[in-house]
User: What shape does this take?
Amino acid sequence: MKPRHLFPRSIAILIAIGHTTPMRAQIGALTTDCRASGFDRNKIIYQFVATCRGRAPSPDGRLAIVQRAYRDRQPPITLQDAHGRTLARLRSLSDDMPFAVLWSPNGQWLAVNHHVGSFMDELQLFEIVDRRIMRRRDLVTAARRQATQTYRCLTPNAVLPSAIRWSKDSRRLMMVTISSPYACSATARPGDWWPLWMIGDIRTGRIDPKSVKVDRAEGALQEPRDPLYRGF
Assistant: This one.
């Protein structure tokens, strides 16, 4: 068995949670298929595609992440209220790359799987505070630390966590960590690293050590089936 090449992570995550409708997304902004944008069937993840308009509302409908359609130059990705007023611009997402949005059930947190090239996504976490959006890095840092402690050949920059699903109480986030097949070296050996599933506390930024599971399945990622994960 060997570390596997992964298809685009934004789409892979939809498959991991049970999305079965074929979707086509262009990486970057050369050509796009806007039919690939929108919510998955469970209304959990909203996929944005470069050049295509999109609107990912919070569960209570009070806020939304919005991308306007464009041809050559990408307009800012914005946080808007229910009346369409812009509250903030998300500059870290405005780079012509696809990204997937997961609102927490209480609408106070936002997880974004942002495509960064080479078929990889990177997790960005945001908290809504008094209608402002604040980026939070502690849980992402903790996920990277867990992966590098498990596989010593990995560096923090080589570990790309992705969000999968929020807990119903919005306190915990299910994640999986990915790296390039050659993250450890140009001649990485089988088993040098594997994807890690984990669950983190959004407030404390800590990973539950009992939740850390190694994914050795070939092909698509396989979500763990133990009680910690079934509770989501």
Notes: Residues 1-30 have pLDDT under 50 and may be disordered. The chain has three helices and 15 strands. The helical segments are 9-16, 138-150, 227-230.
